[in-house]
Amino acid sequence: MLTRAPLRRVPVSAGVLGVLLLVLCLAVAGVVVIALRGDQNEADNGNRIVYGLTLNPSGFDPHIHISNELGIPFFSVYDTLVYRHPQTMDFVPGLAERWEMSPDGLNWTFTLKRGVKFHDGTPFNAQAVAANLDRITNPELGSGKARALLGPYTNYTISDDYTITLHFSEPYAPLLDGLSQVYLGMASPKALQEHSKNTYQWHQVGTGPYMLQEVVPGDHIILRRNPDYAWGPVFYAEATAQSVDTVEFRFYEDPATRSLALESGEVQVIGELLPTDAELLLGNTQLRILRVPIAGLPQQFFFNLKRAPTDDVAVRKALLHATNRTAIVDAVFQGQSPVAYGPLTSVTSYYDPAVETLYPFDPAFAQSLLQGAGWSDADEDGIWDKDGEPLRLTVVFASWNQTPEVAQLIQSQWRDIGIEVELVRVPDFPTLLRDYAQRGDFNLIAFYDFGVDASLLNRFYMSGASSNWSGFSDPELDGWLQEAMRQVDAETRAGLYMSVQQRIMEQAVVLPIREYVNLVGSTARLDGLIFSAQGWWPLLRNLQMVR
Amino acid sequence: MNAGHSRLALVILAGAVLLSALAPWLATHDPRHAVPADQLAPPSREYLFGTDLLGRDVFSRTLYGGRRTLGVALLTVLITLLPGLVIGLVAGYGGRWLDTTLMMVMDALLAFPNLILALALIAVLGNGVMQVALAVGVAGIPAYARVTRAAVLEARALPFVEAARALGARPAAILWRHIVPTVAPPLLAFAGVTLSWAVLNGAALMFLGFGGDISAPDWGIMLADARASFRTAPWTALAPGVALSATVFAINLLAGALAEHPANR
What we know:
Distance between the termini of chain B: 15 Å
Strand content of chain A: 15-25%
Largest interface: A-B, 30 and 20 residues
Low-confidence stretches of chain B: none
Number of helices of chain A: 16
Helix content of chain A: 25-40%
Oligomer: heterodimer
Radius of gyration of chain B: 22 Å
Structural class of chain B: mainly alpha
Low-confidence stretches of chain A: 1-12, 38-44
Number of strands of chain B: 0
Radius of gyration of chain A: 27 Å
Mean pLDDT of chain A: 90
Number of strands of chain A: 22
Order of helices and strands of chain B: HHHHHHHHHH
Distance between the termini of chain A: 72 Å
Structural class of chain A: alpha+beta
Number of helices of chain B: 10
Shape of chain A: globular
Largest sheet of chain A: 7 strands, mixed
Helix content of chain B: over 70%
Strand order of the largest sheet of chain A: 8-9-10-1-11-20-12
Largest sheet of chain B: none
Strand content of chain B: under 5%
């Protein structure tokens, strides 16, 4: 007992010490919190917002990388030669005051605005445009999208400091659309020279209304308002005392965290809310929910035309009829997006509404189509088969945009009429491309891209085109697509794209599900949140803090 | 710890196993069949535990999910136990350089947290149920081998084992007849701990989407799915969450009771 007595006192003094330590820790934490808060208040002297990004792209250089997400910050760092007006969709002057196409369509002359300066003080002129064109067309840069947007561009000539002519090997109708995208934003030649092609993305310099202040890769990007900006397109608002001075971009890759970040005030704007969450937030008067339709391809699955059983057009048609798209959109997207019926969404130029009636949901008809194509259930296991092979499909997709939920509903719907579906979810985009798309190891694959001009279709449907994962090849369709690129006349193009859309659906190359709608949430204290014609990129210039 | 606790644990565990095993007879719906029109329905007579985002019956999915989750866990434990036992016995009884080498490898593996090791393995193995069982199982081997070795070392020094050795018994006979029976009770208790890890880590990997078939009913997958609808329909997470935690809780209670059993004193 004598030896145990002192032992027993140890826990008591340890307890007292523990309490003291705890108090000390709390005190220090409190001081730190107050200090940090003070810090934040200081920054709040200006108008400052946090904008939630939904994924961390592999790179942020618009000349090199293809992610739409990069344009959310960088659309406001750069100006483009021309802009599309977000409401009228017409082309309006950007850094180019006016432009003219030669009668043969091979030369486009741009007259540039004067008095424009890059954020680093470099003057903007024809030489600067030339430097950008040189960079983008240099094969060593490895441009993913910017170069493609220039189409059959060959070279340029500079007539004077503010006049540059772009030359083409054949007429190229989508040029202005390409030039209006952030991927062809005009970067400071000085900055391009100072940094290597890999490091420039962290030191981007444009002429836009916001300047890149700080990048911490994987954590945040900070933009500051450009006080000298006075050359914006017509749809940019004038700067006022309510304009946002600082925008900090942070990443919220897990969809379930986005609505919470918005509600807690951690972010003032965030995109791609979960549809169920958006529904929930509609009742919150402190917040606004915007539904921003995105032009381009719908959320969809390409059929593999090179692999059985989807090599049979009757099977593909049956699958289209067997898919209850309305039910999918209502359940997974809470009815907040329109159902998609064709290879383009209805807000895209030259959309043809005739595709909407082609494949109504009709499981009985789907089954009769299968029967007509020689399928039966000989072994009576409830699954169609032909020549002893069951009707089994592999559907490949990545995790984003609720595609896994869409795919599971498709699986359930198709199983109802006796079609077996194996779902393969891949972790990321490179895996999707490398292991499945390029190898043709799929029956259906979820894949899409965005853009206002219908020439977007070329990359996916022309014979042998870079993203033609279907293996679709139709010389007549190739001809139409090519002709539509050469024709500048809108009516002629509309006619050609009408034929294109109908042919694609007649051949059942794609299973469209829903038109892409970005569910954006913002605090009600923020006015003027509108997006560029392409849909993804906010016009930060027009944001106003309401006091 | 008292007898009441272990009885409660037994009842919970037996209930979980029985309900899972009888899923085909007890389930009220096809666990994979989606009825989008009935999505996120609250619990009702038609849907006892409500429905999920895609309109699937949460009750039926929880029952079938138990089959998959517990099945994977059992497989995992087998994968851990057999090699773990062999390595521990050989190292503990073989001694010398064999012990040093084996334990060096095991210690190196133990440096990684269990789940991190499993994640590393799954990165190599790819997605799928079997892969998850293998990854979690293999990740558990070092700990099990270590515990086995410690028990063997202790048993080896016991007077009757030394006596047997002095009498000239063959090592294999000593190992089998004297050491294995001595070390069995603590190792059984640790097997219980291993099982609860297996359930949790397996569910974690499923939750993270390494389970292959994404529409399969599985507690981990159900919890992952529920994150998207949890705010509007908490029941989507409630059933698999309760099932998972109750099962792990019961297994831990039982393992604790085993460890405190007189045979282990």
